[in-house]
């Protein structure tokens, strides 16, 4: 975790920002809960446990800054709630998600499933793809088993 925090600190410094104590505690919460796809409110509540004097606006500003710097991705799974997902280090693109419409479980797909599609879009439409997001909505295996 310390290596990732150091790299995030370097990314902030490269954009002329500091890793303040408030930003650091926010980053630590995101790293500790990386698989949970936390909302801003979820992040705030977890940060407040560790840093009681922090305000919601500070957490929001930190999340937005980290999103602008492409350290975080802001995602929405169709439920009206923005969630935050740390971008995988060295990843060329955002990873994909499977969202269960029954229980709300979210599973990540690390492999890039759209490489061939990107090539077609770039060639046939003369469009330079810089990123993409793919979310599948359906019913997870556990929920399917419960129905049987």
Automatic annotation (TrEMBL):
GO BP term (any one): negative regulation of DNA-templated transcription
Entry keyword set: DNA-binding, Iron, Metal-binding, Repressor, Transcription, Transcription regulation, Zinc
Amino-acid biosynthesis among keywords: no
Cofactor binding note from Swiss-Prot or TrEMBL: Binds 1 zinc ion per subunit.
Binding site for Fe cation: 115, 132
Coiled-coil segments: none
Cofactor: Zn(2+); Mn(2+); Fe(2+)
Keyword hit for Transmembrane: no
Domain of life: Bacteria
Pfam families from the UniProt entry: FUR (PF01475)
Family: Belongs to the Fur family.
Protein name per UniProt: Fur family transcriptional regulator
């Amino acid at each position: 975790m310390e290596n990732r925090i150091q790299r995030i600190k370097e990314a902030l410094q490269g954009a002329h920002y500091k890793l303040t104590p408030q930003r650091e505690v926010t980053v630590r919460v995101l790293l500790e809960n990386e698989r949970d796809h936390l909302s801003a409110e979820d992040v705030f509540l977890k940060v407040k446990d560790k840093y009681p004097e922090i305000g919601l606006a500070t957490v929001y500003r930190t999340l937005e800054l980290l999103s602008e710097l492409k350290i975080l991705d802001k995602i929405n799974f169709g439920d009206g709630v923005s969630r935050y997902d740390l971008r995988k280090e060295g990843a060329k693109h955002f990873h994909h998600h499977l969202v269960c419409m029954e229980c709300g479980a979210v599973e990540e797909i690390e492999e890039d499933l759209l490489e061939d599609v990107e090539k077609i879009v770039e060639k046939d439409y003369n469009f330079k793809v810089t990123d993409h997001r793919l979310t599948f909505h359906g019913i997870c295996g556990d929920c399917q088993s419960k129905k049987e």
